[in-house]
Amino acid sequence: MNLDKKALVDAINANVSKLHQGIDMHRCLVASILDQQVDERNLRSILDLCPARPREAELKKAIKEAIDVLDESRKAFKSKRLEALRKKLTQVLIDAG
User: Fold this and answer.
1) Rounded CA gap, 17 and 35, in Å?
2) DSSP 1
3) Where are the domains of the chain?
4) How do residues 62-94 score in pLDDT, each as one tens digit?
5) In degrees rounded to 5, what are phi and psi of residue 29?
6) What is the pTM of this model?
7) Which pLDDT score is estimated for 4?
8) Please, what is the average pLDDT of the chain?
9) Burial 39-76 (b: 16+ CB within 10 A, else e)
10) Is the pLDDT of residue 40 over 70?
11) Of 39 and 16, which is predicted with more confidence?
């Protein structure tokens, strides 16, 4: 398989994976609605139980990677700003669940 075909197959596989995640999210939401468990007060908690949306999962992964890099380099770069950024990103991930 040449490089162009491999890149195309990889892109298709990534897209299909995102579609599967979206379908899982919709399945979870429809099941909750059919069980009449959804109202304005508990929609957020139901969304938290459903599979993560693809874009949200990608962002969480990127933030985690940034935190890891900042953590690994904190002894080499004793910067208060980098430390504050690492702590802020960590808190964002904690708050996001």
Assistant:
1) 27
2) -
3) 1-51, 52-97
4) 888 888 888 888 878 778 888 888 888 888 888
5) -65, -45
6) 0.46
7) 83
8) 77
9) eeeeeeebbeebbbebeeeeeeeeeeeebeebeeeeee
10) no
11) 16
Q: Are 70 and 89 in contact (CB under 8 A)?
A: yes
| Residue-level length of the chain | 97
The answer, yes or no, to whether residue 37 has pLDDT greater than 70, is: no
- Name the residue with tokens 């900042």: 70
Q: Torsions phi, psi of 47, nearest 5?
A: -60, -35
3-state SS of 7-65 is HHHHHHHHHHHHHHHHHHHHHHHHHHHHCCCCCCCCHHHHHHHCCCCHHHHHHHHHHHH
Structure-token pair, residue 17: 């994976």
> Closest Cα partner for 49 from 27, 34, 65, 64?
27
Q: Are 58 and 37 in contact (CB under 8 A)?
A: no
C-beta pairs of 41-49 under 8 Å, 24+ apart in sequence = 48/97
pLDDT at 8 over 80: yes
